[in-house]
Amino acid sequence: MTQQTTHRCGWVALMGPPNAGKSTLLNALLGQKVTIVTPKPQTTRNQIVGILTDDDAQAIFMDTPGLSQVRGRLSKTMIQAVWQSLGQADVIVLVLDAHLYIRKPEFLERDLAPVAQALAGDERPMAVVVNKVDMFADKSRMLPLLTRLNEMWPRAEIFPVSALRKDGLPELAALLKSLLPEGEDQFPEDQISTAPVRFMAAEIIREKLFLILRQEVPYSVAVDIESWQEDAERGQTVIHALIYVSSPQHKGMVIGKGGATLKQVGIEARKDIQELIEGKVHLELWVKVREQWTEDPAFLRELGLSGETL
Q1: Where does 8-179 sit in CATH, by number?
Q2: pLDDT at position 20, please?
Q3: DSSP 1
């Protein structure tokens, strides 16, 4: 008799403090970019769903905003997305910055106390991914951290990796698949995300703003795709995007001297969007001031930042 292989499928929540590398980890596991990555914390605002499918399993990842003590309506919306993801997850993956907690072990309790409290008594499978191990040569420095994590989550699998260099990721993927419940695929095998392409294009523009501005401005920046039209005659997609900022000063910084900054954002974003849609793109960017938009619940809903599942 031919032995049948058990097929597994389930939802995996990626959670943890800001700047732990959750987005980098998700992109590396999928082998394709589905969420923005910048050196700044708190760049993920929505619950991004990425899908990893192979012959015997489908893991549906939810990349969530970093858990932090920040204030404001936008921050509350971001945290809501985290807890919604946690509620529907079959497997919980906590991603931590090993380099940070080795240098400053006192931050561990501060950052993880809310998570530990939320997960107390939770019997779902869990993995603690200790990321950024490429940032120090002496791996024995991890021992106190690994010991403490084992004490905090004795049932969890503790798994050191480097998402940036992809060290340990095949083994991590195999572990996560083994923790999934039995079941059939929920998405087509060639689908890698549930995020609409327009949303992903807006995220690409926002990523370029983060990387180019390198100041506090990006935290009060939002991107809305106003129009998306196919120009069959020219063989290109024409995209008009509006960049919202919270003050006239920020508008000037985004535009830059003689429009140089905005032009650079457009050039770099257009390249990535062309790769995303596999076609030519004509991208037009405008900047508009909308004061205190981060505190406007109706506007946050318009931008898809209501905390609802994508």
Answers
A1: 3.40.50.300
A2: 87
A3: -
pLDDT, averaged in runs of 10, over the chain (310 residues): 72 86 87 60 54 92 64 46 70 93 90 77 91 90 92 91 93 95 90 78 86 69 87 90 88 91 94 86 92 76 53
The Cα 128–Cα 158 span in angstroms is: 5
- Fold of the 197-302 domain: GMP Synthetase; Chain A, domain 3 (3.30.300)
Separation between Cα atoms, residue 39 and residue 42, nearest integer Å: 10
Give the other-Cβ count within 10 Å of 256's Cβ. 15
pLDDT of residue 12: 93
Residue with tokens 């499918």: 53
**Which residues, in sequence order, are CB contacts of 242 under 8 Å at separation 6+?**
223, 224, 226, 285, 286, 287, 288
- pLDDT value at residue 81: 53
| Single-letter code of the amino acid located at 158 | I
The domain segmentation of the chain, as residue ranges, is 8-179, 197-302
Sequence-distant (6+) residues with CB within 8 A of 310 are: 46, 47, 48, 49, 194, 195, 199, 304
Q: How far is Cα 284 from Cα 269, in angstroms, rounded to an integer?
A: 11
- pLDDT recorded at residue 310: 32
Q: Are 195 and 49 in contact (CB under 8 A)?
A: yes
Nearest-Å Rg of the Cα atoms of the chain is 20
The predicted pLDDT at position 290 comes to: 87
Q: Regarding beta strands 8-15 and 280-289, do their DSSP bridges make them parallel or antiparallel, or are they unpaired?
A: unpaired
Complete DSSP assignment for 246-309: SSHHHHHHHH-GGGHHHHHHHHHHHHHHHHHHTSEEEEEEEEEE-TTGGG-HHHHHHTT-SS--
Contact call for residues 88 and 7 (beta carbons, < 8 A): no
Give 227's strand partners. 240
